[in-house]
From TrEMBL:
GO terms for biological process: polyketide biosynthetic process. Residues 13-203 form the Chalcone/stilbene synthase N-terminal domain. This is PKS III Alpha-pyrone synthesis polyketide synthase-like Pks11. Residues 218-353 form the Chalcone/stilbene synthase C-terminal domain.
Length: 354
């Protein structure tokens, strides 16, 4: 396993891996499949900075329409697809880390697109053959920000267990959490989210990958209802709600959230070389970029992930982080900021040092 040699003792990100379902659709194809004619809804799909999303759609019926899935159908989809893409993401991550499943000492699974007991951590232990002595954590229902909340917990374990491997995997099957009723409320959600899983391997005491040097959080209690699940009695399932003012709420608080993170390390925004921000939507990204004084180049991976995959919820920032690494532009001494936003309303941040 890489990353267990001499070096700094802080937790380090040693590898990342991602996976999506096998089927993907352009926004135009989705409008045609679901026979959407309302010009307002079509505009949502076609003008949100998204070209394609990976989804597991309902089965097609003989008349060309799609099956009206029950909440039970959606939970079954969440389970089956989640285990599949979660397994693939972990396997790719381990391969990149040059590690085996037997090396995993801690597994944290993150998801908000369904409720399972036992959770994904137990299911992946069985599916992958992870040691039964592995410590586990499931972070459920925290939303798009949850990847960094979980990373803080995983980092704590890695710090307390130097040389041992911890793995975090975000598993989001957003096509298992929807209501399709032709309203603008549900159409905003239906036009935005995609399915995907991303895994991150950490260890401390090594010299591979960037070191996590700090975390900072900011919750906005006055916007607690701005992103939430409601129970839809008419459709018999959960329905996610996004307030139209979310971009402005997040944007208005972004500077203070990042400022606290940097102040803890004695840094300024000009000291940050790389920005990895949650692909929350075109307006959200623009609001954060403007309020932090970032360039479009700074948010290139964030906008590219949105374009190619949609909003992948808790794992979206790891898809962007993976693209940053593949770009091969980071250098020793560089600083990076990870930033996610979600229900609460919440802004989570982490600081990296290469």
């Amino acid at each position: 396993m890489r990353g267990t040699g001499p070096g700094r003792t802080g937790p380090r990100l040693v590898a990342v891996g991602s996976a999506t379902p096998p089927t993907s659709y352009t926004q135009q194809e989705l409008l045609e499949i679901f026979r959407v004619e309302d010009p307002r809804i079509r505009s949502l799909f076609l003008n949100g900075g998204i070209q394609r999303r990976y989804l597991t759609l309902p089965p097609e019926l003989p008349d060309g329409t799609r099956l009206a899935e029950t909440q039970g159908d959606l939970l079954a989809k969440h389970l089956a697809s989640g285990v599949s893409i979660g397994t693939e993401a972990v396997q790719k991550c381990l391969k990149e880390a040059r590690a085996d499943v037997g090396d995993i000492g801690y597994l944290c699974c993150v998801s908000s697109t369904g409720f399972l007991t036992p959770g994904f951590s137990a299911l992946l232990v069985k599916e992958l053959g992870i040691p039964v002595t592995c410590s586990r954590l499931d972070v459920v229902g925290m939303g798009c920000n949850a990847g960094l909340n979980a990373l803080a917990a995983v980092s704590g374990w890695a710090t307390a267990n130097p040389g041992r491997l911890a793995v975090m995997v975000c598993v989001e099957v957003c096509s298992a959490a929807y209501v399709f009723d032709g309203t603008m409320r549900t159409s905003v959600v239906n036009s935005l989210f995609g399915d995907g899983a991303a895994a991150l391997a950490l260890t401390s005491g090594g010299d591979t990958g960037p070191e996590i040097t700090g975390f900072a959080s900011r919750i906005i209690p006055e916007a607690v209802d701005a992103m939430r699940y409601d129970w839809d009695e008419r459709h018999g399932r959960f329905s996610f709600f996004l307030d139209q003012d979310i971009p402005y709420v997040v944007g208005a608080h972004a500077e203070r959230a990042v400022g606290r993170l940097l102040a803890q390390a004695g840094l300024r925004r000009s000291d940050i070389d790389h920005w990895v921000i949650h692909s929350g939507g075109k307006k959200v990204i623009d609001a954060v970029r403007i309020n932090l004084g970032l360039t479009r180049h700074d948010t290139r991976h964030t906008t590219d992930v949105l374009r190619d995959c949609g909003n992948l919820s808790s794992g979206a920032f790891l898809f962007s982080y993976q693209r940053l690494l593949e770009e091969a532009v980071v250098a020793p001494g560089d600083n990076g900021v990870l930033m996610t936003m979600g229900p609460g309303s919440t802004i989570e941040t982490a600081l990296l040092r290469w």
